[in-house]
Protein 1
Amino acid sequence: MPELPEVETIRRDLVPLLVGRGVTRVAIHPGGERLAVTHSPREMEAELAGRRVEEIARHGKYLLLRLDDGRTWVVHLRMTGSLMHTTDEAPAHRFERARIDLDDGTSLRFNDLRKFGTWHLVEEERDAMPLAGPDALSEAFSPRWLRERLKGRIAPVKTLLLDQRVAAGVGNIYADEALWIAKVHPATAAGRLGAARVNRLHAAVLETLHDSLGDRGSSFSDYRDGLGGEGLHHVRVHVFRRDGQPCARCGTTIVKTKVGGRGTHFCPRCQRI
DNA sequence: ACTATGCCCTGGGTGC
DNA sequence: TGCACCCAGGGCATAG
């Protein structure tokens, strides 16, 4: 499940391999029909062929490939998608849904077990991610912004951390990690948190995202970087999928519950409502 | 305006 | 060994 650190790692991997390169051919395979949101599969293939990638940016979990015709190819990997650079001849992965051939004889493969991934080809990037709030690593995601978004809300604080309008790029792994770092119970009604605790939570979000980025992300299951490699951060997490194991701070057994319908891991001693 | 639920999709794990 | 069932969850649509 690629979240901000994973998508940013892919972006950094792909920049030197893709920027300035031309797309010679795109093939969306049978079974990948739902991938192209803004166009039919055949239209998407035709529109992308012949374009040149000028820049690769990111907003939250969206990859933004800016093209030479002024449009942006917006890629979202959802839970199981990956985008990896390889040679032209490399055999297709079991779950390859599309391939993009480049003008230097290399190719990009879009693999996606569960077929939730999306491609938009748009003039205006906002149209592909209309609900996205500030990127969690941008200045716009400030302590004040977070305080304003949580103020008066009775929803669990974790639910709001996962809301991309609040902090684009935070997903289930880093929401749990940030809450542990800040010593906040995930089910706390968001509006009941005082300014000091929200500020602490804001700092914890940045800390966990930067930590993971330094490890090239977490590979709990399907995540692979832009070259097909795994991240390293999953062995360094504090709570995510560590239920039954001791808390690194106090030794209490980490528990797993559901908050807002999502699997949630926390330390019942360090994180109290 | 906010909150809760369901949908999409398929492999892996569990229990009988 | 085989089979039915549940779980994983990002983003969006819909209902309350």
Protein 2
Amino acid sequence: MSTPLVIGLSAVIVAVTDETPRVLVVRRPGAAGELALPSGPLDPDRDRTLELALRNWVRTQTGLELGYVEQLYTFGDRVRGRSGEEEARELSIAYLALVREGGAPEATGAGWLDVYDLFPWEDWRQGRPPEIDRVLAPLLARWADGAGGEAAAARRERIDIVFGLGGTPGDGERVLDRYELLYEARAVGESVRDRGGRSRPAPGTGQVLALDHRRILAVALGRLRGKLRYRPVVFELLPPLFTLSQLQRAVEALAGLRLHQQNFRRLIEQAGLVEGTGRRETRTGGRPAELFRFRREVLRERPAPGVGLPGRREAPPGGEREGAGERAGSRGMRARNREPAG
Amino acid sequence: MSTPLVIGLSAVIVAVTDETPRVLVVRRPGAAGELALPSGPLDPDRDRTLELALRNWVRTQTGLELGYVEQLYTFGDRVRGRSGEEEARELSIAYLALVREGGAPEATGAGWLDVYDLFPWEDWRQGRPPEIDRVLAPLLARWADGAGGEAAAARRERIDIVFGLGGTPGDGERVLDRYELLYEARAVGESVRDRGGRSRPAPGTGQVLALDHRRILAVALGRLRGKLRYRPVVFELLPPLFTLSQLQRAVEALAGLRLHQQNFRRLIEQAGLVEGTGRRETRTGGRPAELFRFRREVLRERPAPGVGLPGRREAPPGGEREGAGERAGSRGMRARNREPAG
DNA sequence: TCAAAAGTGTTATCCTTACACCCATGT
DNA sequence: ACATGGGTGTAAGGATAACACTTTTGA
């Protein structure tokens, strides 16, 4: 007798309202009402394509009509832990969708969550997130030390690389690597839960989601951050007309970084990504801003139009490498196009 | 009664021998002995993870033990055409694997194919591939004209963008976009076959594979080309010790471009990607070359270590845009780090 | 001695970064 | 008037691209 195999489709639906990136979640009927991504099984008879199936599910569960959709990853490892339950194995195909606003999915019980409530260590807009040094780094260090000599060194190297500690420049796109590391180190609630534990996760380790949904979200955020660089995806999240500040804040919200304003504007304009409409937005405080729109022609002009984030190049400015003991002081992430972060 | 759903795992196994990128294919038992990627169904009871399942299948079908493996994409649309057959629907999860050499999979009936026999239009190392202007561009133009006025213009724009015609700079990574376009335009054998047609594909449109395997390969090549830029994946394809020329030729083989030698060497070295061993390779013809090895420490030093290919930036050098009629003369792809192509 | 490939040095150009400053509105 | 955010100019630094040239082997 073979294990029944169900194909699930999950959606990471992202919007940016004001300055916060949000993700749509539903409350699961069963269990303790855990939060979960909208998802449902594939019906091979009805759904002609996977993407259509996904759109259907999202419509019925949240009332939302999706626009931009992209496949993320297929997760198929046997569900961790859950020992004894012996539930049907699920293969889940995850998608990323971008929508323009917090619409009105409230009626259906779905709601928006701040992405950085799930990943507090990913938001560097106010400078280095305090959770890293206060909670995560110590937990990770203990975990690394817990292994034998060889393995401990390997773990430490991995921590340095993915979190950008110890003089290693960080990479904003390695969201999944960071989450997986925290999972392995049992620093996030899911790894405790999946082992049948009952202890509460430490504060600062972020909101727990059902199943492996936070992992899926980590893949989504990493992918989205990467894509910002070379595809004009931000515009999927903005209204047709927007000011350059709105654009910048949306990018910053996703990248989790504060960017240098003057250069941002110039880069965007000289990249040909936007064009001014004569109209201006009379704003709160300060000079009215011009309204811009996305310039579609850029697709013909450039092979990979994107917004240009810092990172990706050389080693950090301060010379070779910091002393092994001196971790807390390091900013980790590169500071090229970054604002001083106040 | 519901359609049976089978989960298939497919592997795009890539190696680079001398100067040609190769992919491993097997001859399918049924049908007319079509060539196909190694693949097999997932056994939910035996295989704990998808990746392990894949490794098992590859081992039994080709005798190969895989090293680097990465998930590519999950294809699940109802199999095109095949009208009447009403076969079980298959969901196939595709993986990319990199191996070091053409091993000895001959015994098992598997064999290596030159990737550019499948995508002749992707190899720009000898300059612009003649197939583009001789075969593909005319076919595509006819296809575009076949649509109504509005749609025809849209099709033409799409052609320009993905093939880099008409002054639009090309992007070596859009391998899938180009293949899909050719499929839609019925320029490749698969689209004829999937519609039940029997006519032979035009010469220059590349070797046909079973099912959607060439599409999968297109995804793989595009992904690999992209990854070259920011992850040290080439080294998975090279022996532990190699000369800089070997490295360059491997990169060129995958990127389908010829690179400027002097700058390539400098970039690689100053990126800290390799380190010299004192040893030298006494070669055929010319001065002996030093043997290098991959410098693992680069992972700690840089957020995204890769080889730096041309492209990705601005519009082509020759000013605004070429006249609409003047297509054949355009090089299309950018020529920044490119050799004059002789 | 010559061909072929390896390897080095130098310069021009262009993108990115940083800094300084002016503009337009609401209170 | 001044605070606030919008918007522009310009110069320094750094990375790439292009070019010229030297070194070391085998035939």
